[in-house]
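Write out the 3D structure for:
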Amino acid sequence: MMLDASEVDRTLSAASDLARDGRGLEAIERLSNSYAVQADPRIARRLVEVRHEAFAEVSKLPGRDAWPPVFADPFPGQDGLIDIAPDELSGDVLGGAITHHGCLRVNGLIDLDTAEGFRDRIESAFAARDRFVAGAALEVDAPFVPFGPGRFKAEVFGRNLFVRAVDTPDALCDLVDIFTATGIKAAVAEYLGERPAMIANKWVLRRSDGGMALTDFHQDGAFLGDGIRTVDCWIALSDCGPGTGRPAVDLLAGRVDDILPTGESGAAFTWSLAEQTVLDAVPDLRIESPVFTAGDALFFDERLPHRTSVGVDLGTRYAIESWFVAPSSYPEKHVPIVL
């Protein structure tokens, strides 16, 4: 079944009426159901807007009284990077892995064809952004559609490494479907105890043209905001890591309970952590440099010390980075997108 132009118009009009009446969450459902029938670019663009506007309607009551929450360890006696199959992912497994082991790897979370498709879409989005910046007219079905909120900051810092999901509406819609189909959405909501919202400027399609020249680590909690409750889902779209010729992620394989002191002399950023600082803080843990296959995912929170692999001779790597936040802890300085 396909929607004709008049049906798309009616869907958009009905969604706007719902949003205007303070029923944005219903508008999201209405638009999403229509998009599942026909992937119309106008519906995708409106969905991005409504997902932002509807954040005002989401409950801001904490889903869990204490944070970090208490979970049983699903992997007692295991050290290093924990990995599972996609059908093993749940809120308890995710929460237990993060709070006891620092992170969780899910092998083959998406299939290779999907990973390859996203690599192509990233290239298309980068090229379309370049055309737009050069003054080209914006087409309805363009792979890059600039979303206003947060855009200035996104264009200033690191823009050569990513395109925001909110600026690629069709990819954002497909990512939401992937989060639902793979159980990511349910597991994260169960772990947080709340319907998650995304950080617009940290929900990105990445294209890293090489490794990093710097050896610094960081914890995202050093700059995301005090008391934030988060989960990051990093999905490799390329084979990457040692031996592949592409940079992956170096990480401290274990739980770090605190945000470590920053501000070291000569650091690249105010939130940078020297490698030795990380090792000294938790001397019984070690740094790991995993190898990922396209489609593998890594879940962690704002406390995990990590960095892009070091090595300036490395080639291009593609990835998706998605930061989920509990609305009760959402920082004012960021732009929310309701999942």
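The mean pLDDT is 92.
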